[in-house]
Amino acid sequence: MKAGSRRWVRTTVLSLVLVALAGCGPLVSRPPPPALHDLGSARATLQRIAGLRAIEVRSPSWLDGSAMHYRLAYESATRRDIYAFSRWAASPPEMLTVALRQMLQTDDAGTGPGCRLRVDIDEFIQHFDRPDSARALLSGRAVLTDMRGQRVLASLPFAISEPAAGADAAAGVAASARAVDALGVQIAGWVASSPMKGALDGC
User: Fold this and answer.
1) What rounded mean pLDDT belongs to the chain?
2) Residue 36's beta-bridge partner residues?
3) Separation in Å, CA 53 to CA 82, 144, 182
4) Which end of the chain is more exposed for a tag (fewer CB within 10 A), N or C?
5) Are 109 and 50 in contact (CB under 8 A)?
6) Hey, which residues does 37 pair with through a beta bridge?
7) What pTM was estimated for this model as a whole?
8) pLDDT at residue 2 is higher than 50
């Protein structure tokens, strides 16, 4: 076979291979887009706080995103992981702000300088004690300040643990939503308590 003929044959075979590979392209499966979760929206007002003008939620930088965190504590006490196919619809601070505003109605029409409720989150994670046993952990502190945030009037540390019904992302979301509801109940009871009367007078 002449050199020109051999080159033609090689070129033809290579072209056929490329066409065959291109034809297989659409058959390659792609991973599904991540499922987006929020904390639900059906929350009733628990407490209207006279003088409260604003609610702010803050968190460490690693919680300031949409990743859904979990920890396999039975393997490592320091390693954090994130679900590959599940995400929060917004960052935990943003979702908690919306939820707390629903449960703790602000006094937007009030007069006077008013107060600010700041909630600092230290942890918001699905914690696995065993492969088949998980719970949602929510911890931090609620701080009542003046509107500029310069003067602390009162503070409430919290550490909430809600068992998850399963060992997957969906069960973690449901447990996290219950933990946020429990936080709203704790703050509402705290604000309504007798020791808080003097602090609220500062609003």
Assistant:
1) 85
2) 87
3) 35, 11, 22
4) N
5) no
6) 88
7) 0.81
8) no
